[in-house]
Prior knowledge:
Radius of gyration: 21 Å
CATH class of the largest domain: Mainly Alpha
Number of helices: 10
Largest sheet: 2 strands, antiparallel
Strand order of the largest sheet: 1-2
Number of strands: 2
Strand content: under 5%
Order of helices and strands: HHHEEHHHHHHH
Number of domains: 2
CATH superfamily of the largest domain: GntR ligand-binding domain-like
CATH architecture of the largest domain: Up-down Bundle
Shape: elongated
Amino acid sequence: MLIDSELQVRHRKIIADIKSLINDKNYEPGEKLPSERTLSERFNVSRSNLREALQTLEYYGLVKSIPQSGTFVADIGITALNGMIDDILGLPVPSFKDLVEARIFLELKGVKLAALRRSPSDLVNMENALAKYSEKVIRLEDAVQEDLLFHLAIAKASANPTVNSFMLKITPEIITNFEKHHVCDKDTAFMGIQEHKDILDAIKEQDPDAAKAAMKKHFDVLYQYCYQATTS
């Protein structure tokens, strides 16, 4: 879900407090931070909110969490760390259009990699995801989640952890916005069955250009909906 304004402010304040702590205590790269319990008490925040902030920093590679050991400052140097945290704190909440553009950029590259690298188990995962999507569409039920699970299966098949990670990161926000803007109506959903089949067939044939073309065609309607939603 997109973070609302109040949670956004709280989230950013915790990140700023962690940055201040690192600087005030002169933590060196690779040095262990205090425990979550200690930090939550120090900042007077819940451990769940603190954990979200630490996960954000870990996502950007600024801290590293090691199970049973703790959280450690990344080995990138304090100047780079401070600059990157400042950039994170300045990031606006992504709009629906921002998310769609990022998704299209990732998937047009990811689907070509999937066509080249997919394994037999990847094909099974994509086929199962498509079957579940088709079943819900035929029953005239909302299939947004099944749709995106098919696309996540493609991202996984790309065998590129970064593409897969970025897709996993933005998917919950995309689901929320799809439902908010009613992107997938009945006609679009039925069209999506064949479009997904075309994408899957190209991946099966290990034809990256055909896979990209099929994905681009699939996204034409999505981008039109995105444009209408952000200009209406």
